Each structure stands twice: as structure tokens, then as C-alpha cells.
Amino acid sequence: MMRRKRRSSVDKEEPLSTAAKPKKGRSAGRQAKEAVAVETNESVFAVFVRKAGVTLKHDAQSNEIAVDQVVFQKRIQQQLQRSPQFPAIIQEFITGMEAHMENPDTLRVCLLPCVPQTSDGHISSFQESLLRMLLGVEMLQTLIINILLEKVPEFMLDSTGDGGLSFPRMIINQLKWLDRILDAKGLSLKLMELVSVAPVEVQRDVITSLPEILDDSQHNDVGRELNCLLMERTQLTVPILDALSSLNLSSSLLTEVRTAVMATMAAVQLEDLPVVVKFILHSVSSSDAYEVVCSLRKNLQLEQCVLPAALQASQTLLKTKRAAVSAAAAAAAASSSQDSISLVLDGIKSAVRFQKTIAEAWLKAIESVEEEEEHKVIDLLVLFILHSTNANQSRRGAERMVKLKVRSGLIQEPLLQRTFRDYVQVLRGYFSSILALAQSLLRSPDPGLVAFGGHMYRCSFTAFDSYCQQEVVGSLVTHVCSGAGGEVDMALELLCGLVTEKPSEMALYAVFVKGILDYMDNLTSQQIRKLFQLLSRLAFGQQQQGSHIQDDMHIVIRKQLSSTVPKYKRIGIIGAVMIIGSMGARSEGTDSQHGSLSQETLRQVTALMELVKSSSESSPEAAALYYDELANLIWSSTLDPQVQEMMGSRVLDDFQEDFVVDLGPDITGSFLLPPRVMYNLDDDESQGGIAINLLPLLAKDTQSRGDELTHDKKLLKRVSPLCLSPFFRLLRLCEEKRHQGDLEEIDALLGCPLILADMDVVEKVESLSKAERDFLCALLFHAINWFREVVNAFCTQTETEMKMKVMTRLQNITYLQTLLEKALAETPGFVPPVSNFDGESSDRLALSSAVPALKPKKDGAGKKRKAAARRSSEGSSQPAEAAEADETQQEHPEKEKDKDVSPGVSLSVFRPFFRELDLEVLSVLQSGLLSRSLLDSELHTKVREEVLLGPAELVFLLEDLLHKLEFRLTAAPTKRAPFLKTRADRSIGFSHLQQRSSKDIASYCVQLLPALCTHLENCHNHFQALLSKNDGCVDAAAADLQEHRLMSASYQLLLQVLNTVFSWSGFSQPGHRNLLKKALGVLAERLKEGDADLTLEQFVKHSVEYLLNFRSTMPSLNTALCLSQLLSTVAERGGNAAAHRDQTASLARHFLSQVWVTASGERERGNKFNEALHALLTIYLEQVDDILKVVEEIAGEGISELLNVSKDESSASWPTLNRQTFLVFYKVLLAELEKAVRKIPAGKSSDDSEAQSEKLLTWNLAVRDFHILVNLVKVFDSRSVLNVCLKYGRLFLESFLKLGMPLLDYSFKRHKEDVQSLLKTFQLSTRQLHHMCGHSKIRQDTSLTNHVPALKKSLELFLYRVKAMLALNNCQEAFWMGNLKNRNLKGEEILSQRSQDSDEDEDEEEGEGLPLPQQLSDDEADKSDSEATKKTNGGDEDESADDSE
User: Which stretches are tagged as biased composition: Basic and acidic residues (predicted)?
Assistant: First the structure.
């Protein structure tokens, strides 16, 4: 259409241009023209151009054009063609043009666009330059191109001509977008020659213009030359890549170019890098995306782009005196590098946004990195990019990848910190993605992910601007208000950290944080403590940046303290104590003796303390919480000396006044039980001694509570025994702080007696009234808690006498616990006094814990050995020099020794009602062992030599240690509480432990390991001696029964403790690798000393060898299970668990082949034994190499032996297998068999014959094992066995359909006999499953019939899947159907369903009428199945494995 229009315009204009002239002959016209040229000395060029409609200008003015450029080109062409001198006239024309352009000014005019001469509608407003129009004349094009390219070298060295225009660039521009190029190849050659000799600026112009100049036919040739040029001159990288991006290159050449570019990436300038990356990703196809992205990731060294600049800036600052100029230059350089990296990432972002294959390739490339050191900053940046794209798939993929990498420890905090440190400007653009990822990670149940999310928040707050900081704080506040445990803890931890590190910035957002006060109902006491800690630091810290919220804080605290609801009063006390801590904190650099607080601040602190004290006086629970919180404050923070001194002096006076009395000749007053002074450890029994006034206080408190209920009035102050232990803890910590750990001022409290009741009443507790029994139990609880706090206080003292007293107090605790167990057994419904005051409300806690005591007989049965053993311990280890009261205490165990052990309750239910033991108490495990040599050398008395850690105390300490480790080192999944249901607070009794990090606790346990190993060896030696004494029998004499039980408990607890320590997830983090090596080194050194430089794997090897030495002395199956689990855990720590699989399997097999008897000589049995057996058998089957062989061995040999022995006997080869444990074996065998077949690879069409044979053989073995197990229900037909068989039978069948049938599809033709045999064997099993379905319906047992529909569905699927397999292999004729009769387990036809034969669903049978293999199982000859076998063999009627009604 355009061509036609142009022609028409030419046709129209020609008459106009010629009409004004008289018509002449052609020859006359020519003569006239030549004459004119001669007359005026004008060149042919000038004449022709003028005649064609362009007026040439010589005075730097633009040439004027009077006609359309198409008309001009046509006229020039006509004039040349009509000239008599044609074709010589062309050269003359060109010569004239050259002469005209000799002058640079004239050349510039010819290169610039012409201006219209007139403004009529026939000429467009924009016209091309004269030379560009002449290039459109085909007969002149090549010549003019040559002239123009020859002109370029004349101006190459001039950067710009007059007017700032570059002649080379203007000349090159003439060649762009020509309608047609006659000599495309020649032009490309000339341009490349020009590039080879031109300076860089001209080269850039030429190369960049190539795609707009060249014909498509030349693209590949020019691409090759540019590729070679790229290797030689890296400064031309950007223009070459720009050109290559626009050229239409072949895929092979593109790959070659891309490889070359990738190789030169390291040498590319930073500012050129975005173009390089853009080209690489632009040229990617879906087939090579992964390979290209991997290579790009490997070569893209962003770290090198940033660090040298920073290093250079720092060096510049050091060397020059003009620091300000240098700093500005450094900042500019850093900003420039950040801009370049931003452009690189923008290139990646556009690529992943518009090409799905590139996004997937990046994810795959990052996933393929398997070493932490190999991960680079670009990985994190790309994950942020992928998350920021709108595509849901990329966002989810990035989030999944971050979680995967963090969970596996491959992306860790140092990489994140490096990214934020060096690329802050770049990351700012992806802030929303970083925030969304951090939110997702913080909500994860995985502690490792939560911690990494916290690092992301911290880095974002530190690195970004105020808007981002506000968003971070807002997001953290949202996390805190969510109420989800781990999420809240980490968010509060982060806010506390930010307040400490960036107080002035956080002060701006104090109002946001204060908003959490409205959501405190969902927070635990520990979280409330954290919240008030950070708010009080903001409001009352030394700088007081957040002083604007001080008034709000005071209002909240006063409101909560004045509340009558215990929960809110508790919040008020915790908050007030935190404010006291912030206001009274010691400022840095203050002298330790003299405080620096102003009088006004000291007055405020004093006033607040008085306010809390007066608010809590009326409630013992509130007062006790106040003392506990103050003690916690003193322990965890450094207070100003003035505050500390004031607090310490008051506490000491008040404690003496409230709880300590002087010993008199007798104790006056009437009490429910007769009082008696007991447990005095001090030698002087003079009347001047002191005692803890426990029984009178408890009696008075009980009476006061009764008066309150009667008179409905509150007493202003009440000294309650509830406050005894908290107050003493506060006193002890005050003294420690004031005297740098010396407790000489209060050491009398360690040995002073208590006023208690005569403990003979425990023997006749059943004859006491309910009030007396309740009083006795409460008294025992208070006494035990007092001793626990005493042990907490003095356990770190180094004097020998102190150590001995601490051990005696431990013995007092274990003895009193045995009395308490007996008392509680006779006091159903007793509500113990609260001892941990920062947990749930005491009413709810007491109610929940009083319930188990109502059924003492059932709960206490398992605890009797512990109770009796503790009694036994008291008799042997109580020191003879103790006070007279202790002699009475020692008589009780002696009396009990000859009696049957009476049942008691389990004190583990009442654990929340005992005071928490500090972690330092566990140091007794070490000092107890070391004290023997100390005592022998310093105090040579036989009585003192025996004061060692007894078995009962060892069990007591190990139980506490295990509880602590399970709470802190075992990660509990963070689950949200169900709606309208309160969640049991598992943190009660661990308040002090929560304030230590899990790493600190793990480190402390590693220090304890040598002592634990020594105890472990002592237990081993004890049982070794017992075995040798009894000729290998573990049956102990009756006199040693309690000791045997205690030592068994110690043995098991020690193994559990070690297993919990080594199971700590923190050991998998690289930062804790040295701690793990140290822990393994302790075990290894017990075997071989002196090898400290071993590898981790060698340490694991020696540790496993050490643990295997204990295999011969396991007293019970539960202990054996603990050893097996510990061995498995330690083996996994080496990173090569497979290396120790044989040892673990061998150990488990050894235990499974052992007869387990109790201390009294009876066989072990019961639910706990069965649970341990289940776990041990599972470990064995998971660790063996060939599970199918082992399953066949147990099912074929072990169970066959069981069938041939009497009811109470066991299998010969598997002594743990008897009729009582058959269900355990059966369930584990079926479950592990089903798990094993799921690991068999699915069949593929690409598999060769050998691979198919191997898989078929595996399936044959599995199906045979399954057949044996299913057939066992004919003998063991109990409901539980049927339930297990139906459940796992369906799962096995589903696995076979999913993984086995594809294999049969592809291997049927090659291995016809094997496939046929496998299906016939499997048919026998499915038939039996069908019979079981019928049996379940007859019995109408819902627990069984629940499995039937899903199983029937799978059986039908199997039918049609076999039919499809035969059809696929063109063997449809080998398949037919028949009706399967419903039978019961014995094979008898179910008569009630005969009439429904016509409605039966069709079932299948595969094969070709061949007889079934008779050798598969002995059960084939079973009478119940004989009819079916005959029919199948005869081919009359085919019964199949399944049927559905």
C-alpha cells in the first residue's frame, strides 16, 4: 500500500514540476543540461541533485528539499539512466559528490537531515539527509557506502566535530535501516575491518549499530567475528553483547558465544556486569536453562564486587589527610557498585518473571548445593527475588527452599549477615519479601527456622531506614500477640535484643510495644517477664529514651497490683520487679562499693518496693511470688550497690523474725500432730541453737485460713510457710551478691533442725483423721521444699563439711519422699501447697494434680520399688553423728526391709509442687565421686568415709537431670491451644532453667559426662558382680531386692540422660561441632586415652565401642532398649550412620534373643515390656541389611517354633517371642515389611533385563513374606491380630499396586514365569484377606469392619490392574473372572450369603490355567483351603484373591 501511494505521488508531481517548462526534444534537453553544467562549472552531482529537488547549501545551513524523498530518489535514478554517458556518468556523479564533501562543514550538512523548502501538504515535516536518500538509489549505494566508510578514518581521532556531533557516528547512522542492501556481505566485511582499526569509541558505535545495518543473512558470520573480538577486548563487552542480543544467531553459535561470555565474566567491569547477565539469561532455552544458571551462579562473584571497594575506601581514608573528600569518594564508589548490583538483580528478576524455566532452574541450582561453604550471597538474593515475583509458584518455591536450606544448616546466620552488611541498598528493594519470609519462618514449628527468622528481623532493623524499622517492630508485636509459644518467645527475645542494642531507635516505637500490654492474657509468666523487661528498659533505663511511656507503665502496674484476681496481681508483681530492676540497675563504670543512683531514683525504687510488699501481704501466694521475682532479679542482673544493700539488710531481718526461732526445752501450743525437732546436723545440741519454725507456722496458717473462711475478713499480714522457701532463696542470693558468693552469714541454716511432727505417725496414717492426714502431707511438702532450697543454696560451697551436709540433706529429701508417698496413698483428693508461684493459678494446678491421688493402688504399683529402695538407702547412708532425731529416721527402713513393699503414689504427678532444683545441684554428681579421696586424706573416720552419694540420691538427681534435659534439649512441637481449652503449661517448675540457653545446658552436661560415665561403669560393675555371683543368673537374693531395683533405675536413667544429650538438635549446627567432639571425646577416652586429635568419625567409632561393652549387664529390656537407642543416636552423629548399622542390629538381635527376668526371678511381662519390645524390634528391623530375609526368618522359623511349644513357653531361636508378645512381633513385622516394599524402586520401561530380574526377585520375597504373615491369622485369630492384618494388608496391597504393578507391566514378556508365579502367590494372600473381610462382617465388630471398605476397594483395583497389565502385553485370553464364595477364617462357606451369588461382584484370577506352586508355604495343604486349591488346579472355577459385595 505504501509503495502504491508513493508511486501515485510521483505520478502526480511530475506534471507539476514539468508543466512550467516548454516541451523540448530529449536531445535538446540533454544538451541544455550539459551546457549549463559547463557554463556554471557545476558538477554533475550538483546539477542532478538540484534538478531532483534538493538545493545544496555551502554556508553551514541545512540542505533544502522541495519534493518528497521518494520523488527525489526516482528523479536521480532517471537522470542517471537517461544520461548518454551512462554508466560512466555514475562515476562522474560520485566524483562530484566526493568533491562536494571535501569540506567537513559541507559533509556535515550532507549528513544532517534536509529541511523542507515549502510547507505544502505533499512534503513531510521530517526528511532524511541527502546522503541517506542517495543510499536509497541502488546503482549508487555501494559506491556511496565505500566513500562514507573511507571518510570514517579521517574523523576517527576527533571525539566530536563542530557542534558536538561525532562524524563517525553520523556516517554509521546513514547505513541503518536501509530498505535494501545490494552487497550485504561486502558491507559486513568493511564494517568489521573498520572495527579492527578504529578506536574504542568508534568501535562501540559501529558494533552497536550492526543489528540495524546488516541483513539477516550476515548475522551468523558477524556473530562469530564479534565472539572472537569479545575474547580479545573486554572493554567492548557491553556493545558486543548488545549487538549479539539483537542478532538472529543459530542455537549452536549462541551456546558458543554464551560459553565464551561466561569465561570472561571474572574480567568484566562491574558496571558492565548487568549487560552480561542480561545477555546470558536472554539467550537461554528451556533445555539448557539449568546448566546455564548453574554456570552463571558459579561465575557471578558478587562478593568480589563489593569488598575491594570497601577495602580501597578504608585504605584511602588511612593514607590521606583529606578524610572528608575520601569518605565522599568512598561513598560514591560504594553507591555505584550497589547500583550496578541492583541492575544485575533487575536483569535476573525480569528473566525469572517472564521465563518460568529460568525461575525453576535457579531453584534447582540452589537446591543442588550440598556444602555450607559453597553457598554464596547471590543465592539469598535470588531467593528474595523469586519470592518478590508475583507468581505464586516462585514465591512458594523460594519459601520452601529457604526453609529446606536453613533446616539442613546449609544457609546460616553468617551468610545472612554478610548479605545485609554488603548489599543493604540492594536489599532495600526486596524488604517486603524479606519481611514476609521472616514472618513465615518465625511461625514455623522448627526451632532452627524460628532462630533464622529472628536473624532476618534483627538484620532488617539494624540495616534499613525508619520506615522498615517501624514495619519490623509492628510485625514482631503481631507475633507476640498471636499467642503461639515459640513465635512469642522469639519475638520477645528479638525485641529485648533490639532494646539493648538500639535503645534510641527502639524508643521511637515504644508506643507500638506498649500495645502488647492489652494482650497479656495469652502470655506465660516467663513471656510477661520478658515484656516488662524490655518496656522497663525503654522507659526507665539509664538513658530513658522512652520516658514518654513511664506514666502509662506506672498506671498499668498500680492497676494490676490493686486487682483481687490472682492472675492480674501476678502480672503486676512481675512488672513491678522488672521496673525496680531497670530503675535500680548499676550504671557502667560504677564502683562496686558505692552506688551512683540519685536520691530521687532511690526514693522511687524504695516506694515501689513498699507498694508491692503492701499489695502482696494479704496473700501468701502473692508474697511468695514477690520474693521469687526479687530473687530472680538479683540472680540475673546487676543492681546498684545502694539498692542491693538496702534489700539485703531488710531480707535478713525479716527472715529471722518470721521463720527462725530459738530452741527451747519444749515447744508450747496445741497442734494437730505432736511437734518434734528433727534433722539437726550441728554437733552442739545446746539450748542456744536455732530451728525453722515450720509446724507451728503451718498450724497457725491453717487456723488463719479457717478463720478467714468463717469470718470472711482479710488479715493484714500473715506469715505463711508458703513463703519459707522463696524467702530463703531471696536471702541466699542477697548474701551471695553482698559477700561475693560467701554464705558464712547464713551457713547455720544448712544444719539447723526443723520443728516437724514425729514421723512415727506415718506408720499409722490410716488411723488419723482427714484433717490430720492433710496436715501431715502439707508438712512433708514444706519440709521437702525447704531442703531442696537448702541444697540449691549450699551445693556450690567447697568446704568438705558443707559438702557432707548437702549430701545428708539429699538423703533427707529422698527419705521424706518415701514417707510422703505412703501418706499420699492414704489421703485421696489432697491438694498440695503451691511451690512455683509464676505458673498457672494455684487452684487449677492443684485441682488437676489432686485427681491422680484418688487411685493410689493403680498408680503406685510401679513406684513401690523406688519407695522401698529409698527407705533402704536411708538405713545404710545416714551418718551416725547426726542428732537424735535422725536415729528415729534410720529405724524405719530397717523395719520395712522384712515387710512387703506397700503401694504408694507416684510423686512424678506432684512434680509442679516441689521447688525447682538449680542446675548447679547436679555438680553433686561430680563432687560426690571426688569426695572419697578428699575425705580419706583429711578426715580419717569410717563414719565419714561412708557419706557418699547413695543409690537413692543418685536416682533422685538423675531423674531431675532427665526432666531438665527433656524440657530444654528436646524440642517440643509448637502447637496452638485448641479453642476454649487451656493448654497444660509444661514449663512449671523450670522457671530458672528457662533463663539459660540450650547451649549452656548442653555444655554443662558435657562437663558432667565423665561423672555420668563413672556412674554408668559402677552400675555395670554391680551387675557384673551379681552375674558372676549367681552363675550368670540375674535372680538376686531377697535381701538385695531393693538395691537391685535402685541400681536398675540408675542404669536406665543414665542411659536415657546420655541419649537425650546426644539427641540435642543443636549438635547438627556447625557452631556446636566442637562441643559435640568434646562430648564424644569423653566417651572415647574412657576406652582409649590420649587421642585428642581424632576426626569426628573416629570419635564416634570409639564411643560406639565403649557403649557396646555394657551389653552384657542389662538388668531389664527397658534398659537394653535405652542402650540400643543411645548407640543409634551416637552412630548418627558421625554423619555416616550406615557404618555402624551392623553393630546396632547385632546388639538389638542379642537383646531380642535373651530371656528377660525380673529381680524376683519371674519373666518380664506387661505393657511396658511390650512397648520396649516393640521399639527394640523396630530398631533391629530398621538396621538390618536384608529386612525381607529377617522377616521370613522370624515368621517362618520363630513363629513355627512357637506353635510347637506349650502355652507359656517361648520360641527357641527368639526367646522374647511367646504367645503374650506375638501381637507385638506380628505388628512390627507387617509394619516394617510394608515400609520396606515402599522403598523398592518402581519399574521403568527403560530398565534392562537384569534390573527387572532383581526387582522381581525382591517383590517375590516380599510377597512370600506377606503370604506367610497373612496365613498366620488361621492360627492366631484374635481380634487384635485381625485388626493389624487388615490394616497393614491394605497398605501392602496399595504399595504393590503403586510400585509393583508397573514393574510387571514392563517385565511380563521377558520374565513371564516369574510374574506368573508372583501373582499366584499374591492371590493366596488376597483370598485370605477376602475371607477376613467376610469374618469381620459375620462378627459385626466395628473395629474390624472399619477396615473392610478400603480393603475391598484396593482388592478390586488389584483385579482391574492385573487385567490392564495382561491387555498391555496382549494376553487378554489368560484372564477370566469367576464368583468367589464368601468364607470364614477356617475356609467354611458363609451360608447366609449363598443366595447372593448372583449379586456378587466379579473377581479376578490371572494365569493360564497352570497349577499353583505347592511349595510356597506349608499352609497351602491346610484343610480350610483344600477345596479352593483343587478347583483352581482343575480349572473348573477360578477363585480369586478378593471380592466386594
Answer: 889-901, 1423-1434
